Amino acid sequence: MIPKVFHAIKSSDFTIKPISVHKKFLVQKSDLYIGSLPSTASGYYLREALFTNEKLRLGTESESTYPTNSYDGTFKQIIWKSVDAQYYRFPFDTCATLEHSNERFSSKFLNYSASIISLPYMDYGEIVRPGSVEITGSNFNLTDDANGNLYDVSLTTGSYSDRHNLIAYWGFNNEFRRNKTVPEFLEKTKIDYYSSQFEDTEGSVAKNIKFENGVALSSTSSGTSARFDQSYILTPNRDEFNFSKVDDFTIAFWAAYETGSNGTEAILISKKDILTTQVYGELDKPNQNGLIVPTFHVSTSTEYSPTDVYPYKFYISSGSGTINFKRSDGTKIIHLSGSLNLNDNKWHHFSSVKSGSNLYLYQDGTLLQSGSEVNYHPLNKHSLMFGSDNFNFQNSFLGRMDEIRIYNKGLTQTTIQTLADSSSLGMYQSSIVGNVFYRSGNIVVSSLNPKYNQILNQDWKLRYRGTHVIYEYECLVRIKKSFANLTLNPTALIAPNSDLLINDFTSSIDEFSLTPYCTEIGLYSDKRELVAVAKLNQPLKMRDDVDINILIKFHA
């Protein structure tokens, strides 16, 4: 018979600590595919998804279930909508993403196609461990940065610009989110629609802007561009859009020029002619009681108001077809220009750089001309205009613009060349090709570079760690001195061959005292149900002179 002694434990002697442990996982394409169709035997799922604005078919249960290779791609579109919901909290909100909003983390955009790995919850647990994801293939190596971004470490990014110096950016790759009505998706690589007016994250509004294929990345169309044909994009003035005599800056963009522009100057970018003014005053209006009372009001108007003081202006001479850049302080005009006729309707990259006291004009990464800075500060309150310098389109630009960037830093020529390089993601100044959603277990590769389209059809290996929370229970068992140094067994003898009984109450000075040892401790519920058993690595002698404290730890 094994003796048992029950002793109540105070709640203060019992604590629970959560501990995060990480399990390693390795997944390969061969484990997921049988022939050409995905296999679900391993619990992992591979999916390819496409953007669509078509209403999904509803019908019977069989009609609403589509195979991966459904003829109309509906199943892929369902997946796209499901993953897209993880990127944006609201359907038309490009800012309120479900991931981090800290400026150190990149904005998350789901492009027109996506390759998705959906990890089973039983593997990744509460969360995929940030910084543990790695997908390797024959020509790519993707790793997450612990902030939800999936980037290709095989890309050389040493010449990329610091994103903290980027103060304004128009990429036109997610314009379908900036309208109240999502445009129709006509083709895989092309969005073709008109927007009478839209507002983007820079506060810009546009008139008659049409979006078409963007700059060809790696000889294949990627993203969208803004098409101008008696159109404009207007962005209200902000202080950071002005650059004084002591400020360095860089303005870079892609443009494709078509003949037929109005006027002698086809305006690309101008901060010279459109001014927004506000008039403060009182206006007689009825109040809630119907009485006519003076009411304070603000009247805003936007008008054509040219000035001789402006920080920058880009235009193409309609006659010669050459690029021009101007900057004026009212007394001195800096005029830089090129010599190449651009009437070819092909994409060219342009940039102006102010560094120190010098100005530089680049075309396709090559320096065209340089000049000295103006004498005074060329600052104004005018709005930033793309495609025109007035609302009558007298100097309007006919063509396309894409990847417009404004930096508060003078970039090096090496960085300018990467911006003008359409052979890799250097054009976008980012090596980020997708995202990892740690809590949902979805890994999404969605890049404007066609290189990453359907990338999971190649051979690859995925390594990651799943975070599993276990709980460590700590229980402090207090054994008072002389506790359990007692036996009521009438057959307990002093020695095996002795007829003398052992003393009922023992003492350390008694030669024949009871010296019991503890070998295990059981924890019981209030119903005396055994919950856990703690085995001691060696017997523990009970003491009658001091209390004994035993700390029991176990995990569950």
Helix content: under 10%
Low-confidence stretches: 34-41, 57-67, 90-104, 175-198, 504-509
Strand content: 35-45%
What is the CA-CA span between the terminal residues? 30 Å
Report the CATH topology name of the largest domain: Jelly Rolls
Main β-sheet: number of strands, strand sense, barrel status?
11 strands, antiparallel
CATH class of the largest domain: Mainly Beta
Which of globular, elongated, flat, extended, rod-shaped describes the shape?
A: elongated
What do the pLDDT scores average to? 78
Query: What's the total count of β strands?
Result: 35
The radius of gyration over CA amounts to 36 Å
Give the oligomeric state: single chain
Output the number of helix runs. Answer: 4
The CATH architecture of the largest domain can be given as Sandwich
The total domain count is 3
Gist of the model:
The chain has four helices and 35 strands. It has 556 residues and is mostly beta strands. Strands 1, 4, 5, 6, 7, 8, 9, 30, 31, 32 and 35 form an eleven-stranded antiparallel β-sheet that branches. Strands 10, 11, 13, 16, 18, 25, 26, 27 and 29 form a nine-stranded antiparallel β-sheet that branches. Strands 12-17-28-19-22-23-24 form a seven-stranded antiparallel β-sheet, with no helix packed on it.
